[in-house]
């Protein structure tokens, strides 16, 4: 049994994560140095580059294995990785709060791109264990704590084998991402590569249609940005694409890109 702290209702303080690994292993010093040099030399040059140019650059220059993070909101990154990053793994954060459609897309991605290992990262506690330890509906009472335990910490742990990661960040996703770089360092010194930064929602949808990609059905039902089912609502036409994320809280990011 996990030890509980003396919090109201007998539940553990959500600011205290469960026991177990939570951090990313340190990079070898030489890899960290190379990454920093690469960002210094190339970040400005890649700021407005195409997705293909960015990924070809990553395949040539990254000083170690890369992982492509997939939310399964769309499968554009999976397709582009198939073309430009043949050795990359895929990583999906299975929070256990996803829409059933999101899990179906993950299964389809695994079947369609069998040469890329799909890592399904989960939290230390199952959804049921989290309810027992921290109380029910933590995502409503302390959404940042829920995201930390079910997204940020699992990503950190599973990032250890890699020199860098590829994200689906787009500047068009909203004000918090309007200046997102194509290439940067994360707080562990790993490369953070965002080949879709210049893409629009419309351009993404057009690429999906043109290339006959796997489509998340909710993106055609008013959900331009999809997270956990408990924390995602549809948005009205013309609204900020991320307006439906944590609409019940003063929160705009899960912590993965802060």
TrEMBL record:
Q: Which SUPFAM superfamilies match?
A: Adenine nucleotide alpha hydrolases-like
TM annotation in the entry: none
Q: Which residues bind [4Fe-4S] cluster?
A: 146-147, 228, 231
- Enumerate the catalysed reactions: [thioredoxin]-disulfide + sulfite + AMP + 2 H(+) = adenosine 5'-phosphosulfate + [thioredoxin]-dithiol
Q: Tell me the InterPro entries matching this sequence.
A: PAPS/APS_Rdtase, PAPS_reduct_dom, Rossmann-like_a/b/a_fold
* Residue ranges, annotated region (Disordered): 1-25
Kindly identify the residues recorded as the active site: 254
* The protein's annotated pathway: Sulfur metabolism; hydrogen sulfide biosynthesis; sulfite from sulfate
Cite a single GO MF annotation: phosphoadenylyl-sulfate reductase (thioredoxin) activity
Enzyme class label: oxidoreductase
Could you say which protein family the record assigns here?
Answer: Belongs to the PAPS reductase family. CysH subfamily.
Protein's name in the database: Adenosine 5'-phosphosulfate reductase
Q: Which organism is it from?
A: Corynebacterium jeddahense
């Amino acid at each position: 049994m996990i030890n509980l702290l003396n919090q109201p209702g007998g539940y553990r303080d959500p600011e205290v994560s469960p026991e177990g690994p939570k951090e990313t292993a340190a990079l070898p010093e030489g890899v960290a140095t190379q990454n920093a040099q690469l960002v210094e030399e190339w970040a400005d040059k890649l700021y407005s580059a195409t997705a293909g140019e960015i990924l070809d650059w990553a395949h040539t220059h990254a000083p170690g294995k890369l992982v492509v993070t997939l939310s399964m909101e769309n499968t554009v990154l999976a397709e582009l990785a198939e073309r430009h990053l043949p050795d990359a793994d895929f990583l999906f954060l299975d929070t256990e709060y996803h829409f059933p459609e999101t899990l179906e897309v993950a299964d389809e991605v695994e079947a369609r791109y069998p040469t890329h290992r799909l890592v399904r990262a989960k939290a230390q506690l199952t959804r049921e264990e989290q309810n027992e330890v921290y109380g029910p509906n933590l995502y409503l009472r302390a959404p940042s704590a829920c995201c930390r335990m079910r997204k940020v910490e699992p990503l950190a742990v599973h990032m250890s084998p890699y020199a860098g990661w590829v994200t689906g960040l787009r500047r068009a996703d909203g004000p918090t991402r309007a200046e997102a770089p194509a290439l940067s360092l994360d707080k562990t010194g790993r490369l953070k590569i965002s080949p879709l930064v210049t893409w629009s929602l419309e351009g993404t949808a057009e690429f999906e249609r043109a290339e006959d990609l796997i489509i998340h059905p909710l993106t055609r039902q008013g959900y331009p940005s999809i997270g956990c089912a408990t924390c995602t609502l549809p948005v009205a036409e013309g609204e900020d694409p991320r307006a439906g994320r944590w609409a019940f809280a003063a929160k705009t990011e899960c912590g993965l890109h802060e």
